[in-house]
């Protein structure tokens, strides 16, 4: 049996591998295919053939070159919508040509699977344009990009989403029964709690590459004026408002160094406006932090038990949550223990097993 796995250009890029923990998800999908008994083919697109002029140019140049390499005897295809349209069209075109000619098919008709990480484009369009405009930043989601994503998911036989929230946004684009869920996991050995010091100021961590989409501004507004609360920022370049010398700014941190940063903090705040599931929430939970997050990433914890769910764009709700955790350290510790226990019940093997089950089921129905 042969499977095509086409994760896009980031999968083998060393610099991205160094910093992006989310690439582990690609490894899980590939391992799931291998454990199902497939010989896995991954397109090898030379970097010099990827046009970096724009996001759409990057997507299409990778996709077209990858499409030219596809083995025509594959049993299934798995990739993300944005980087897969030309490949899906080639595979679907071969199937349609055979069917149209009424010829006996000596080639298998591959089952076309896509996986989605983020919410559907219509949701992003509701949440983000005005936010980027507020900070005089371009909102990079062109009509071509939207068309590519929409056409790809319509061509696919089945879609794998990481959460019910993400599934719900894509269910407004394609039929709900076409989408299954494989929750993401976390490495609870790599990310683990450290013994807490008898007393330190409440240490709040923010992790994210895009300060606008991740809602950093709302955390800053909540944090300003709070006493005995430290703020650590990892990943993005903060807004100009974050000039206070007490704010610890790390910039980009290699993924292997992230566990030690988590272990030095008490709370993760992610007031993101659109995320799907953010791996930093589960990594923080495994590290014994209490997560405070908006509705889509909050699906990985139980509100009020192993984390605190907050509305979008609500600094006051962040302040209330932080003050509650600061003033009630025993409650915070109890919530942190519950978060850790929940993270331990969400290993990467859970994700892999779910992907395998989805593929087996869908191929059985083919």
Features:
2 domains; 42% helix; six-stranded parallel beta sheet; 12 strands; alpha/beta; Rossmann fold
Characterise the protein shown here.
It is a single chain. The protein has 2 domains: about 1-185 and about 350-365, Rossmann fold; about 200-345, 3-Layer(aba) Sandwich (Rossmann fold). The chain is about 40% helix and about 15% strand. The chain has 14 helices and 12 strands. The strands form 2 sheets. It has a 6-stranded parallel sheet with strand order 2-1-3-4-5-6, with helices on both faces. A 6-stranded parallel sheet has the order 9-8-7-10-11-12, with helices on both faces. α8 links the parallel β5 (about 160) and β6. α2 crosses α14, α3 crosses α4 and α9 (about 215-225) crosses α12 (about 315-325). The radius of gyration is 22 Å and the shape is globular. The chain starts with a strand and ends with a helix. The model is unreliable at about 95-105 (pLDDT under 50).
Largest sheet: 6 strands, parallel
Instruction: Name the CATH homologous superfamily of the largest domain.
Output: Glycogen Phosphorylase B
Strand order of the largest sheet: 2-1-3-4-5-6
Overall shape: it is: globular
Low confidence ranges: 95-106
Whole-number total of structural domains:
2
Order of helices and strands: EHHEHEHEHHHEHEEHEEHEHEEHHH
**Which fold name is given in CATH as the topology of the largest domain?**
Rossmann fold
Whole-number mean pLDDT: 91
Give the C-alpha Rg. 22 Å
Just give the CATH class of the largest domain. Answer: Alpha Beta
Question: What fraction of residues sit in β-strands?
Answer: 5-15%
Counted by DSSP, the helix tally is: 14
Termini Cα gap: 15 Å
Q: In CATH terms, what is the architecture of the largest domain?
A: 3-Layer(aba) Sandwich
- Oligomer state equals single chain
Classify the helix fraction into a percent range: 40-55%
> What structural category characterises the helix and strand content?
alpha/beta
Tally of strands:
12
């Amino acid at each position: 049996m042969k499977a095509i796995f086409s994760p896009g250009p980031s999968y083998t890029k060393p610099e991205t591998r160094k910093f992006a923990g989310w690439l582990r998800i690609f490894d899980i999908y590939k391992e799931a295919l291998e454990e199902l008994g497939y010989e896995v083919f991954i397109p090898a697109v030379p970097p010099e053939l990827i046009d970096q002029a724009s996001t759409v140019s990057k997507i299409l140049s990778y996709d077209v070159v990858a499409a030219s390499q596809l083995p025509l005897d594959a049993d299934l295809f798995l990739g993300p919508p944005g980087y897969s349209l030309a490949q899906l069209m080639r595979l679907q075109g071969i199937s349609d040509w055979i069917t149209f000619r009424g010829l006996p098919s000596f080639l298998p008709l591959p089952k076309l699977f896509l996986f989605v990480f983020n919410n559907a484009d219509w949701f992003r369009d509701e949440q983000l344009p005005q936010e980027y405009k507020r900070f005089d930043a371009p909102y990079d989601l062109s009509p071509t990009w939207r068309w590519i994503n929409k056409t790809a998911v319509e061509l696919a036989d089945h879609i794998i989403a990481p959460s019910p929230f993400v599934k719900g946004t894509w269910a407004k684009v394609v039929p709900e029964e076409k989408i299954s869920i494989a929750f993401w996991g976390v490495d609870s050995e790599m990310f683990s709690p450290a013994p807490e010091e008898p007393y330190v100021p409440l240490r709040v961590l923010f992790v994210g590459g895009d300060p606008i989409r991740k809602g950093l501004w709302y955390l800053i507004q909540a944090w300003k004026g709070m006493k005995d609360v430290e703020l650590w920022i990892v990943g993005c370049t903060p807004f100009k408002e974050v000039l206070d010398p007490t704010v610890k700014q790390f910039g980009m941190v290699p993924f292997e160094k992230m566990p030690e940063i988590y272990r030095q903090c008490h709370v993760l705040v992610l007031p993101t406006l659109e995320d799907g599931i953010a791996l930093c929430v589960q990594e923080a939970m495994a590290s014994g932090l209490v997560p405070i997050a908006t509705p889509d990433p909050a699906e990985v914890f139980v509100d009020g038990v192993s984390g605190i769910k907050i509305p979008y764009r609500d600094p006051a709700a962040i302040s209330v949550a932080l003050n509650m955790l600061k003033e009630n350290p025993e409650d915070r510790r109890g919530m942190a223990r519950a978060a850790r226990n929940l993270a331990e019940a969400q290993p990467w093997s859970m994700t892999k097993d779910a992907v395998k089950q989805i593929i087996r089921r869908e191929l059985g129905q083919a």
